[in-house]
Design brief:
It contains four helices and four strands, in the order αβββαααβ. It is of the alpha+beta class and 153 residues long. It has a single domain, classed as Sufe protein. Chain: A (Alpha-Beta Complex). Strands 3-2-1-4 form a four-stranded mixed sheet, covered by helices on one side. The chain starts with a helix and ends with a strand. It comes from Lactococcus nasutitermitis.
């Protein structure tokens, strides 16, 4: 496949996730994390329900740029049903990828691997990692339903 066709595919997947985000909304119960990216104004509210050690439900709301929204959509799809440990590992792989580090496990990111090109635009890294940082924070807090915090990404 020609590089331009591959680039067009990547763009199409990113635009699809941004225009029709998966798991958009808010759960009625679960851990709530609010984060924002003061650099560009992206805001996310991530709600996660954990059953034992597994992400049993997840949703996000807020507003953000195409990259931020697409990344949140992709992240929710890939971590749903994963253990906290698996989700943290995926978040680390994603962070490495968007900062230009190669990782042979990138393919585990599903559609999120299409955001690898963000590494060429350092100002967009925070946009792409906002949802993933909210996920890390939710897991670090233990998934306590009482937790509701505001953090800058």
């Amino acid at each position: 496949m020609a590089l331009s066709k591959l680039d067009n595919l990547y763009r199409a997947v990113i635009l699809d996730h941004s225009a029709s985000p998966r798991h958009a909304g808010e759960l009625t119960a679960g851990c709530v994390i609010d984060m924002n990216n003061p650099t560009c104004g992206d805001v996310i509210r991530l709600t996660i329900d954990f059953k034992d050690d597994i992400i049993s439900d997840i949703a996000f709301g807020g507003h953000g740029c195409t990259i931020s929204t697409a990344s949140a959509s992709m992240m929710t799809e890939i971590v749903l049903g994963k253990t906290k440990e698996e989700a943290l590992a995926l978040a680390e792989i994603f962070s490495e990828m968007v900062t230009g580090e190669e990782n042979p496990k990138q393919e585990e990111l599903g559609d999120a691997q299409f955001l690898a090109g963000v590494s060429k635009f350092p100002q967009r890294v925070k946009c792409s990692t906002l949802a993933w940082n909210a996920l890390k924070k939710a897991i670090q807090t233990g998934g306590n339903a009482e937790v509701q915090e505001r953090h800058d990404a």
